[in-house]
Amino acid sequence: MGLNGAANELKIHRMRLPIWTGKEALVNAVKNNNTVVLLGETGSGKTTQLPQFLFEAGLARDGIIAVTQPRRVAAISLAARVALEQGAPLGEIVGYNVRFDERTSRHTRIKFCTDGMLVRELLLDNVLDRYSVVVVDEAHERTLRTDMLLGSLKRIQRERNTGEKRDKDGKRLKPLKVVVMSATLDAERFSQFFGKCPVLYISGRQHPVQICHSKAPVEDFQDAALRTFLQVHIGQPPGDVLVFLPGQDDIESLAKSIRGYVPQLPPTKQKVLVLPLYGALPPDQQKKIFDPPPPGARKVVLATNIAETSITIPGIRYVIDTGLCKERSYHTRHGGSGLDELLIKPISKSSAQQRSGRAGREAPGTCFRLYTEQSYSQLANAPTPEIQRCDLNSAILDLKCLGEDPMKFDYMDRPLDDSIRGSLITLYALQALDSQGRLTQLGRRLASFPLEPALSLVVISSQARACTAEILDIVSLLTSTAKLFVDNADTREAAADARKKFQHRDGDHLTLLNIFRSYEDVLTGNHNAESTMANGAPANTGSRRAAREWCRVHYLSEKALNEASTIRAQLRGNCEREGIDWKVSCGDDAEPVLKCLLDGLFRKSALKAPDGTYRQIGMQQVLKIHPSSSLVDRKPAAVIFDELLITSAVYARGVSAVHASWLLDTPLMNSNARNAAAPHTNGHA
Ligand code: CDP
Ligand code: MG
């Protein structure tokens, strides 16, 4: 097919989407109203088409159209799709901006970004003057950043659209249009929030979906998913399969078992193409989801809830729903101990309906729910908005930077007052706020880093302690979304052996540093003359291959290490803007690095008690060192850690040893905590 043929095909595909018939009505509604809520079945064309309609109708003439997404993956792939439909290279008319990655130019008129990125832009310009339209997509997901945006957009509209705020010449600002898009039936609430604005509906093209519940409760969802897939594959007519799983680990492990089982099937059976889909997947692998499988093969996509509404996969006739998702939640019952963790949770009814709906996009389909009908009836109707269940520290800091009062902000759903207060106290302890609750200069600096406030403080204090090079390496690896250690139960021992040489006696943070540095030595050190590029660029194919092999034998994720390099590059930029020299290194001296980590992570520090368990400073939480830590046997007198994990007990993960005496200088060390400390645990173990 020639280029024109392909372009035609695209055009025809666009015109067949359910949204197309409503084009004029939609454009008019946006022209005539400040805010419009748009409701439509997943796959009806909202995300890809509406921005183009508005652009073609001239609504991007004096400002950019921003389209926000909760997930990076979706923002990038949607931008690529819309650029293709516009017949323009990605990054020109259509671009994207997500954390640690941006492709835009001064010609960009349609910009896909994560909701978090737009919140960051608010910090630089609190009326979003560059934008003429903000489309808040996937609003039903009610992420923390989406909720912060909704409240802020309402304020901006008041300031821009009524002339309340003027530019420096006293002229009125140009009005801001807002479109809130949702795939579920919660439109009324958004409309209420925006002063009863109009709601438009796109009637989708949904085919009937037969729903089969499990007869009895499922004990092992991995096993049940595998069996169900094999039954579909063996017994059901052609059609692709979509399996919803909670997280990346579950996806990788099911992918492995399916790939292991399929060769044992009779050779007459169709081939199987297994495709994972989750937030941290690199864009080139993500693209494969949209391709038809090779002739005679069945495609099975293993996805997180990303495939619920934000990405529509063609060809799906069967859905297997484990009924589970991973949800970040924050434990106020621990008195705000920093227990912010990803937990596997049952989904809501509205998610279950969205998931089953994915089977009926192109033809009648079937959904196999790996839970009983009774369990279904007990699910919550809709998920709790993230703002009511997560750590609010960085959100509250952002609100402070925007000049908002977090206690009075216009929340669509208000978080608990206790959570807001807890964050205010943490921010005060981090010295981001003064005793009057006013933003300090340090607070503003903390907010300028794309990190949680505690880690921003670690980076900033590395300047005074002269170890920024080391700290940026560690913080970048801690922030990477991909998992660094890729061993499983079978390979755990071999992996531990292979990685022994990286182990640092002071614990896991410095071990990370050793790993990152060894990786980079392989990547840059081993090149031979012919493949070295003149500019010394490290990524020649020879050393790439060596680095990949090095990752394999050490059971480390190359993806996580590469991502960390990207993050570090951005953090270096942040440091330069803050006047911090990121090249300053402390060499082999571990002390400044540990002290620096403690400067930010002091809320996540603990002292050993006589029974060998630990007490978290300031909250008396009892915890143990996680078995994956290099300090599990050494048990130093005082530790800091990255996160708590609750399983049979509360475990600290990512642990380093610190001097117990150092803890005395931290803001949280009060008499209570001191009493809890064991009398014999002075000094470094
Ligand atoms: O936002 P909504 O769920 O209403 O639909 P959309 O994301 O705009 O998708 C409309 C159509 O574009 C679907 O049929 C998708 O399969 C297609 N699409 C695609 O082929 N590639 C993408 N990267 C995104 C969408
Ligand atoms: Mg969409």
TrEMBL record:
<dbReference type="GO" id="GO:0016787">
    <property type="term" value="F:hydrolase activity"/>
</dbReference>
<keyword id="KW-0067">ATP-binding</keyword>
<dbReference type="InterPro" id="IPR027417">
    <property type="entry name" value="P-loop_NTPase"/>
</dbReference>
<dbReference type="Pfam" id="PF00270">
    <property type="entry name" value="DEAD"/>
</dbReference>
<protein>
    <recommendedName>
        <fullName>RNA helicase</fullName>
        <ecNumber>3.6.4.13</ecNumber>
    </recommendedName>
</protein>
<dbReference type="Pfam" id="PF07717">
    <property type="entry name" value="OB_NTP_bind"/>
</dbReference>
<dbReference type="InterPro" id="IPR007502">
    <property type="entry name" value="Helicase-assoc_dom"/>
</dbReference>
<dbReference type="GO" id="GO:1990904">
    <property type="term" value="C:ribonucleoprotein complex"/>
</dbReference>
<dbReference type="InterPro" id="IPR048333">
    <property type="entry name" value="HA2_WH"/>
</dbReference>
<dbReference type="Pfam" id="PF21010">
    <property type="entry name" value="HA2_C"/>
</dbReference>
<feature type="domain" description="Helicase ATP-binding">
    <location>
        <begin position="27"/>
        <end position="203"/>
    </location>
</feature>
<dbReference type="InterPro" id="IPR011545">
    <property type="entry name" value="DEAD/DEAH_box_helicase_dom"/>
</dbReference>
<dbReference type="GO" id="GO:0003724">
    <property type="term" value="F:RNA helicase activity"/>
</dbReference>
<dbReference type="GO" id="GO:0045943">
    <property type="term" value="P:positive regulation of transcription by RNA polymerase I"/>
</dbReference>
<dbReference type="InterPro" id="IPR003593">
    <property type="entry name" value="AAA+_ATPase"/>
</dbReference>
<keyword id="KW-0547">Nucleotide-binding</keyword>
<dbReference type="Pfam" id="PF00271">
    <property type="entry name" value="Helicase_C"/>
</dbReference>
<dbReference type="InterPro" id="IPR002464">
    <property type="entry name" value="DNA/RNA_helicase_DEAH_CS"/>
</dbReference>
<dbReference type="GO" id="GO:0005524">
    <property type="term" value="F:ATP binding"/>
</dbReference>
<keyword id="KW-0378">Hydrolase</keyword>
<dbReference type="InterPro" id="IPR014001">
    <property type="entry name" value="Helicase_ATP-bd"/>
</dbReference>
<dbReference type="InterPro" id="IPR011709">
    <property type="entry name" value="DEAD-box_helicase_OB_fold"/>
</dbReference>
<dbReference type="GO" id="GO:0005730">
    <property type="term" value="C:nucleolus"/>
</dbReference>
<dbReference type="GO" id="GO:0003725">
    <property type="term" value="F:double-stranded RNA binding"/>
</dbReference>
<feature type="domain" description="Helicase C-terminal">
    <location>
        <begin position="225"/>
        <end position="403"/>
    </location>
</feature>
<dbReference type="InterPro" id="IPR001650">
    <property type="entry name" value="Helicase_C-like"/>
</dbReference>
<dbReference type="Pfam" id="PF04408">
    <property type="entry name" value="WHD_HA2"/>
</dbReference>
<keyword id="KW-0347">Helicase</keyword>
